[in-house]
Here is the input.
Amino acid sequence: MTDAVRLETLYKTYDDTGAAVTALDGVTASFAAGSFTAVMGPSGSGKSTLLQCAAGLDRPTAGRVFLDGVELHPGKDTAMTKFRRTRVGFVFQDYNLLPALTVEQNVLLPARLAGRRADRARCRAVLDRLGLTERSADLPERLSGGQRQRVAIARALVTEPAVIFADEPTGALDLRSAREVLTLLRATVREHGRTVVMVTHDPVAAAYADSVLFLADGRLAGALSAPTAEAVAARLTHLGDLVGTRAGALA
Ligand code: ADP
Here is the structure.
C-alpha cells in the first residue's frame, strides 16, 4: 500500500537573521493512508515546520516529500500547485476563512482555485455531514469558533485530498468545541478513510489519534500507538527534561 505521505531525510534551516536555525534535522517518516497521527514536541521542536514542508507550503532545505507516491516540488510550478490544492487539505488554528465569502463559497474555494468546476453537490454533502447546512449562506463572522473550524474542515475535505494537515486545530476553541472538532477529524479517518496529520501540544487532543510522533530539536524522538492522554503527557515531560538537559549541557 502506498503511504499517504512519506518524508525522506527532511532538513530545514532558517537563515534570515544571519544566525542559522536548524528547524528540521533529518526527519524520515511515513503516514499510512487512513491513519490519524498527532505530532507533538516541545515548543520550537519543528512541528509547524514539518507540517508546512509536508504540505508543500514551505520548501525543505534538503530531503524529499511524497504525497500518494508523487514527489512534491514546492514552488511556482502551476501544475504542482494545482496538485497540492486538490491532494492536500490544511486546517489552521485561526481557521483562515475569507471573511467576505459565505460558508459555501469558502468551502468551494480550493476547487475553484485549482481550476476545477465547483462541485456543489459534494460541497452540500460535506456541509450536511458537518452539520453546517443551515449556515451555508452565512458569513464567517456570524459563526462561533467551533463552527468556523468545522467550515475549515469542510473546506479541507471537499477536494477529497490524500491527506489533511491540521496545525493546532483546537488551539483557539473552548473544551466542548475542541472535542467536537477532534471527534469530526477522527470520524473522517475511521468512517471515510481519510488521512490526518495533526500538530498539537495538548495530550488530550493527541489521544484522539491512532498514534503520536514526538519531535525534539528537529529530530524524531519516538512514537506511541493507541495513545492515552496520560501516556502522552508522561512522554512529553520526559522529552522536556531531555531537551532541558541538552540545553543545560551546552550552557
Ligand atoms: P514548533 O512548531 O515545534 O514550535 P517551529 O517549527 O515553529 O516549532 O520552529 C522550529 C524552529 O525554527 C524554532 O527554533 C523557530 O524559532 C525556528 N523558526 C520557525 N520558523 C522560522 C522562520 N520563519 N524564520 C526563522 N526561524 C524560524
About this structure: The CA atoms of residues 102 and 137 lie 5 Å apart. The first strand starts at residue 3 and ends at 14. The chain has a mean pLDDT of 90.
